[in-house]
Amino acid sequence: MRFSRWLILAAILAIVAFVAQTYVKRKQTLAQNAPAPPPPLETGVDGRASDWVYTQSDGDRPRVTVRAKKFRQIKAPSVMELDGVELQLFHKQGGQFDLVKSDKAQFDIAAKTLFSDGDVEITMGKSEDQDAEGRLVKIHSSGVRFESDTGKASTERRANFEFDRGNGTAEGVDYDPNTRELHLRSKVLIHWRGKTPRGKAMRIEAGEAYYREAESKVTLLPWSKLTRDTLRMEGGTSVVSLDKGVIRQADTQAARGVQDDAGRKVEFAAEHLLISFGDDMIVNNIKGERDGKLVSTANTVRTTVTGDTILMDFDPAAKESTLKHAVATGKGVAESRPLANGGEAPLPETKILRSEVIHLTMRSGGRDIEKIHTEGAGTIDFLPNHPRQPKRFMKGERILFAYAPDNRLETFYAANASTRTEHPDQPGAPPILTRSKDLGAFFDPKTGEMTVLGQRYDFHYQEGSRQATANLATLEPAKDVITLDGAARVWDPTGSASADKLVMDQKSGDFVADGHVATIRMPDQKGPSTAMLSSAEVMQGRALHMTSAGHNQQLHYEGSAMVWQGANRVEAERIDIDRARQAFAAHGKVVSQFADRPKTKVASTAPIVRTAPPIFTVVRAPDLFYTGETRLAHYQGGTTMVRPGLTVTGKELRAYMNDGEADSSLDKAFADGAVKIVSTADKRTRTGTSDHAEYYANDQKVILEEGDPLLVDSLKGQTRGKQLTWWANNDRLLVNGIESKPVDSLLRKK
Q1: 689: exposed, middle or buried (Cβ count in 10 Å: 0-12, 13-18, 19+)
Q2: What's the burial of 120, exposed, middle or buried (CB within 10 Å: 0-12/13-18/19+)?
Q3: Is 80 exceeded by the pLDDT of residue 318?
Q4: How does pLDDT run across 349-369, given as a tens digit for each residue?
Q5: CATH number of 282-429: 1.10.760, 3.20.20, 1.20.120, 2.60.450?
Q6: 567-747 — its CATH code?
């Protein structure tokens, strides 16, 4: 038994020795194959790790996730140094996040901020789905700091960023993933491309900018500049609205802009300017509010339109933004100012149109103005640009300017129009005033000068005391001639004229009248007065044609002409009157009639009583010449003079007229050439013939001489003599014979 116990003990020792030997060999093998032990941590370092992940959540929604290939934790200050960093900033909506990548970064554990001094790339709006249009895509910068609690990122350094429609730069950037707002602190420059490759990029500049992705808006402040091809705009704060990455609208304060193309320049400005863009960022329309202004400049003229509000529409079918139509509302003003072109021709007038609503329509291509018109009432000033040009002012309704190429005014129209014209080169001259239902004007497209001004329907004209009316008036400014058609009438304190048509010289007042001419000449107390041309009576005239010259002193009537003063009148085919020389001429079937003044009887207690009817002297002849200096009316071509009970015929007749105060208009009359005088009174007829005869109206005396004078008396027979004198108002006859040839009388017995 005792031996077996020792045997068991020996076996146990052998087993232990075997196990110990096996353990030592295994330990040596493991020691040989084991990796080298990690080096000891540096002083101040709490730990190291690889594939580090940090996550911060807001309930079930992740807010921030930070991954790094390596990290090293520093005790003081308490930071983590990260290599190969990826930062996910999750959006509130979920499903999308912003991805930040950096080679190196530091994570401040206490401040919960991540800072990268090197290059940083931020990719916006990552999701499992495809990227959405119209948003910021990437930001490249350095010195970026992230707040893990809020996800906000910021840097003071230069940043480059990319959009799906462009790119840009700025100095200093702040980004908030919660609001998806990007703040560009200064020196902002953005290049924004159109929707299609053919679209030209928009260059945007600003002192500062905010991009709000959720609102698809970019706010530029405190100043902004937008440039696209030949279109430039600058101003104060501006808000740019986007639609799927395409700029659709720019809302700018205190803005001004220009589209400067070859041969076409359009400028615009307003306190508030709103630009709307179509595809490829071609301008659709521009709206200017508060002191809106539009300036269109062509080769020869600059047109400026202003108003409280200006709306400009551009041609959407054009490849580039071309102005098609503009309207100014609220105190609208359109000024057309000619430009010096280096030529010798004087500049046309500057034209200024004012109205509550003014429309401007451009020709195809947007280069030239086609027309300017108003919706309601307006006024126009035509301001002279050289001394000879008149100064005109017009007002009317529905005013229209139509233009030829190169913005040259061609026609003008206004309804219910009135005008005022002044001549600066005629000091003291009264203004010319007109009004009518319609007014139209034509301009020379080469010079811009008005060639014809027409006014119709109820036309009225006034120049000082001179006035006129007609259905239609046409003014030719180059000639200073106005033509009145249809019920035309012109008058002043000296008289009036009416006709179917009147053509009047505005400077001199001379005129030509045609068709149913009727004139009235008021008395002129300063001039001399005779029975034929009295200065104390109204002179009237009628004819088919008439002219007035020398300030209405020289008158010509033609075609069934007739001139009269009271009962005195002259009819002829043509009549000429020179009032300054007191000359009168009539031609063709002349008939003159002059009335003696009726003899009156004055009683002390009774009014004036007419005692006899007026006595007329009527003379017929082909031609009549009269001069006031001699008071001689010379009738030629075969004449006949008729007074009560007396008829005188001959080849010519000289009638001497009394002054205007005499009882008889006729003083005496001398007839020559085949003279025949017939006197009838009390059933008695005396007929005298000779080559020369004289009649004296006051004494009723007749003298016959020359050409074998003969007097035939129906009661007493006939008498011949060298000179026969008889008195028609009594039974007296005086006969003078010749020595070689005694008086020959043949007496009729009772």
Answers
A1: buried
A2: buried
A3: no
A4: 898 999 999 998 988 877 788
A5: 2.60.450
A6: 2.60.450.10
